[in-house]
Amino acid sequence: MTAIQINSVEKSYKAFKALKGVSLTIEQGEFFGLLGPNGAGKTTLISTIAGLIRPDVGSVKIHGHDVVTDFREARKKLGVVPQELVFDPFFTVRETLRLQSGYFGIKNNDKWIDEVMENLDLTNKADVNMRALSGGMKRRVLVAQALVHKPPVIVLDEPTAGVDVELRQTLWKFISRLNREGGHTVVLTTHYLEEAQAMCQRVAMLKSGQVVALDTMSALLRRVSGSQLIVHLKSGDLPQDLRHLVSHDEHGNGSGNKYSLRVNDYAEVEPILARLRESGAVIDEMQLQQADLEDIFIQIMEKGAL
Amino acid sequence: MSFVSVGFRTLFYKEMLRFWKVATQTIAAPILTAMLYLLIFGHVLEGRVEVYPGVSYTAFLVPGLVMMSVLQNAFANASSSLIQSKITGNLVFILLPPLSHWEILLAYVAASVVRGLAVGAGVFAITAWFAHLSFAAPLWIIVFAIMGAAILGTLGVIAGIWADKFDQLAAFQNFLIMPATFLAGVFYSIHSLPAFWQAVSHFNPFFYMIDGFRHGFFGQSDISPWTSLAIVSAFFAVLAAVAINLLRGGYKLRH
Fold it and tell me: CA of B86: which chain A residue's CA is closest?
């Protein structure tokens, strides 16, 4: 079943084109990452999915329901955690969650509200006014608000921006469980690429309002050219003819030099080691590091596409 | 199955809770203001002005002040709630759920009516001590109080949607709502005005709300309460249509 269908969506703000014909299909049960630098159009796209922004061209459907023409059905299926840390200062955490349940037409939702609060470590803050909460706690309430109606599709717009490790772990544990056990679709935008790499099965990368990469995480990781061979030299130096491979170097503290060399596959490692031996350099430590999502992200953003 | 949807009831309840939690500001303060008006104007003008035969000026003033309080507070409730939610960003909690345009409009208007009537009842309870009042046609009192509050609540929704900043809302209130209320005969009968201004007053919908409301007390008014009701109802229908179209089109709410 298709959870989110985005068809050729375009959106402009006066002369600025925020989205230039974005098309995506996200299946039910996927954990999907939407990545891109600031200003790439991620939040505009999420706001379009949420019905907060109306596309100039194209359409978005949630479980087959158009977010503009059939918005009531579409919104019932969708839970959105906004990027901005917003709250209503008049209410306590429990009141906030009860009200949000009611807006979705759900009465007597306390059992689920208690479960959500427990999973997000909010139980002891249930009767505290929103104003009195720390930023991290407010973020948890935002997540809880998005989940009060048990939406099959959950969209999180940078949910871990500026929050501590504890919340990140609590949040990902709970969201992963919803995805794994409940079959909820999760769409995530984040600047923490290690989070996206750990959580997402599939990724779309946006640049200047366009999708520049769309693939499974494993396929993307395979696509990137090369790994990093990190060598820490006890003595000697890197020969001149190997210096073009250096992607990053860190000079040691007098005991030797540390270099990161780009290699495309394992077969390239042995000739490099042989050349080092030949030059008289002595290796103290060596490590072969696989390319990660950050490397791919940087390559795609620099080149436009892989 | 309930006739009224859970979504509407929740938003209505939330709006009620919002003003009730700051009742000193939203209920008590306007009651005090109205009482000061009565004491000052009543003291200065009592015995010098007789608007209706056999009705003291203070007695004439009370219904006008009650209605003015109802109208101003009904407007303030919806408009301030919306502008605060827009500026703080928490309006998103209303925009993300599957609430219909009618549910949103009616919830804001209904809560505005309740606040308007609560303040009006408070003003009446205090000011009635200062004048001998009659209740010639109580049903008109209720009808015009509810219609007036609903109209101003709807205007509050429109202003709250339109305004991007507090000063824009203040301009709406100070340059439109306040003059229209003050020039609608709160403190005088339009029959005491020159012919030209009498004619102008007939274009002010607020005049019909206050005149019809006052008819409920004294059984006398500048024009027939039925005519006032027809005009007030038509005005409400037009405003409701404008508000619902703004919500449907997402004007300044969904970009």
Answer: A86
